[in-house]
UniProtKB/TrEMBL annotation:
It comes from the Eukaryota. Residues 92-115, 263-277 form the Glucose-methanol-choline oxidoreductase N-terminal domain. SUPFAM superfamilies: FAD-linked reductases, C-terminal domain (SSF54373), FAD/NAD(P)-binding domain (SSF51905). GO terms for molecular function: FAD binding; oxidoreductase activity, acting on CH-OH group of donors. The keyword Acyltransferase does not apply. InterPro entries: FAD-bd, FAD/NAD-bd_sf, GMC_Oxidoreductase_CD, GMC_OxRdtase, GMC_OxRdtase_N, GMC_OxRtase_C. Belongs to the GMC oxidoreductase family. This is GMC oxidoreductase. Keywords: FAD, Flavoprotein, Oxidoreductase, Signal. The keyword Phosphoprotein does not apply.
Length: 533
């Protein structure tokens, strides 16, 4: 059934980083733009009021305070996290998507990511405008405390002695000029998208400028079930509003567009529920009544959900007498640190527990594999003695092991990551760890893997499951790629006016994804706005 009589030029599904960038750019271009988000309030400014008692009387919700990041991560009340009947994965379902629950790490991908892994029109030279727009609009800092002091530096200093003095990395401003943000043998203070000692991100920037415009609206508590299609033309969306019985439809104007920014797990699900995807999956879905499009109207696109990626993660616990570990506390912060934050947005609660980050590439034949290390302020699980910190090691760009977004029997997205299914990938990450272990000073001791492990032992360790290895970091991306699932204008292949713009279209990046996703969304907005009617 087609949808008619609507007057929206653009409907955007999902208010994550990509959906918010598009909301701003589409409304700025004069389009009557509707943003639909299934979740509810997050930051104080969006109406979020969930918080520990010590924030009473402030204009802060728990989302605004960077140091509460890990407890947002674990506290399951209050609907910030997607419920299990929405997605089989740990993701944000709230205004801002996962950018409202994440650590706020904000790293610019190196030029090589665009040049190696993106198609014509998306090479580094083509991305310059989009990069500048994000850098201009989204504040970030590597010195978040408002009193100008750096806190919890004992772990940073120990890591610097190891990685810079020992392993020969260069200490740089990690998002500074092109020669420094190449992410090749560099070490530095983490960059966060915070402002004024509080979480910033696209909710505080792009969404606020969109909201100034009369031609922009956001509707929360609204879950899109499927795109309504008239053959190759999207005409609107079927929605389910929180608290309402049954479903209803919202239609676009003639010549309008629907853009899916539901994230790398949920955009593929929405496509499949709309009869666009791999016919074997669609056949199963229609048997359970979830696809109401007759099979002759399906759009056969096997790239929907294919080659989804997350970073394989290894936790290395490190101990030194010179380190003071620091644990954040949701309800009862150390009083001095609580007051420092409340009075001057300073101290440990002005950032999200990461104290250092570094990168290198491992060359394997013609392939270049990115590896990242991020240093946290405390140990974890079996290793929480004072003096312990956690080094989080990820494999990043250039890895060759991918999974697939399939759907469970209820039709809910279920990703697989298939880490190290290509053995070269385990070998690359193990090589990175092995190299830096050669430079470990006598004062710094790994606790959960022997310092003198051979490359083979490290390869086996990282690719054998344990609480410290084969972890997902929930940086899902790459599930609806440019040129196979969508074309280079981000238009779904087989459709005329349906687009996907979010982490789905982004190839595995060398860095944590948000900044790259926002840059890709800026580029997509340029391409979509340039399309001929
Ligand atoms: C715990 C955690 C920590 C992370 N830490 C970092 C970090 O420090 N730095 C970094 O760069 N990255 C980090 N990431 C990853 C990063 O947050 C994501 O890559 C990024 O948010 C993806 O953006 P997106 O626009 O693709 O979509 P998402 O952020 O996934 O947002 C999608 C939005 O769409 C909504 N939606 C989905 N389906 C529907 C529907 N059918 N109807 C209506 N609305 C819908 C969802 O509710 C959600 O709000 C982290 C992720 C997690 C989960």
């Amino acid at each position: 059934a087609s949808c008619s009589g609507g007057d929206w030029d653009v409907i955007i599904v999902g208010s994550g980083p990509a959906g918010l960038v598009l909301s701003d750019r589409m409304s700025e271009a004069g389009k009557k733009t509707l943003l639909l988000e299934q979740g509810g309030p997050s930051y104080y400014i969006t109406g979020g009021r969930m918080r520990p008692d010590w924030l009473n009387g402030t204009d802060l919700s728990r989302v605004d305070v960077p140091g509460l990041y890990k407890s947002i991560f674990s506290v399951t009340d209050g609907n910030l996290i997607c419920a299990p009947d929405i997605v089989n994965g740990y993701q944000g379902c709230t205004i801002g998507g996962s950018s409202a629950i994440n650590a706020g790490l904000f790293f610019q991908p190196p030029a090589s990511d665009w040049n190696l892994y993106f198609p014509e029109g998306w090479k580094n030279i083509d991305m310059q405008c989009a990069i500048e727009k994000v850098r201009a609009k989204q504040p970030s800092t590597d010195n978040p405390s408002q009193d100008g002091k750096r806190y919890l530096q004992s772990g940073f200093e120990a890591a610097k002695k190891w990685i810079v003095d020992g392993a020969g990395y260069k200490e740089v401003g990690l998002n500074d000029g092109p020669e420094n943000h190449n992410k090749s043998k560099v070490f530095g203070h983490p960059v966060f998208n915070y402002e004024g000692g509080q979480r910033s991100g696209p909710v505080k920037t792009y969404l606020q400028s969109a909201l100034q415009r009369p031609n922009f609206s956001i509707q929360t508590g609204t879950r899109v079930l499927r795109v309504i299609r008239d053959g190759e033309t999207a005409t609107g969306v079927d929605i389910q509003s929180r608290g309402a019985n049954g479903t209803s439809s919202i239609c676009i104007a003639e010549g309008g567009q629907v853009i899916l920014s539901a994230g790398a797990l949920l955009s593929p699900q929405l496509l499949m529920w709309s009869g666009i995807g791999d016919p074997t999956i669609l056949t199963k879905l229609s048997a359970s009544g979830l696809v109401n499009v007759p099979s002759q109207d399906w759009v056969n696109n096997t790239a929907v959900g294919d080659k989804v990626f997350d970073n394989p993660n290894t936790f290395i616990e490190l101990y030194s007498e010179s380190i003071s570990s620091y644990n954040y506390n949701y309800n009862s912060p150390v009083p001095g640190d609580r007051d420092l934050y409340l009075q001057s947005r300073s101290g440990p609660y002005s950032f999200g527990s990461q104290t250092g980050a570094f990168w290198d590439f491992v060359q394997q034949g013609d392939d270049l594999v990115g590896c990242q290390g991020t240093i946290d302020s405390s140990g974890t699980m079996d290793y929480t003695k004072n003096g312990t910190i956690t080094l989080n090691v990820y494999g990043t760009s250039g890895l060759r092991s991918f999974g697939r977004v399939s759907l469970d029997p209820k039709g809910i997205a279920l990703p697989s990551s298939n880490f190290y299914s290509n053995p070269l990938d385990a070998s690359a990450v193990a090589t990175f760890i092995h190299k830096i272990f050669q430079a470990l000073p006598p004062t710094l001791t790994p606790l959960n893997i022997a310092k003198n492990s051979t490359l083979e032992q490290l390869t086996t360790w990282i690719s054998t499951w344990s609480p410290y290895t084969l972890g997902n970091v929930q940086h899902w991306s790459s599930s609806c790629r440019l040129e196979t699932c969508v074309d280079s204008n981000t238009k779904v292949i087989g459709m005329q006016n349906l687009f996907v713009v979010d982490a789905s279209i982004v190839a595995p990046l060398t860095t944590n994804p948000v900044m790259g996703v926002m840059i890709a969304a800026e580029r997509a907005a340029e391409r979509i706005l340039a399309l001929k009617k």
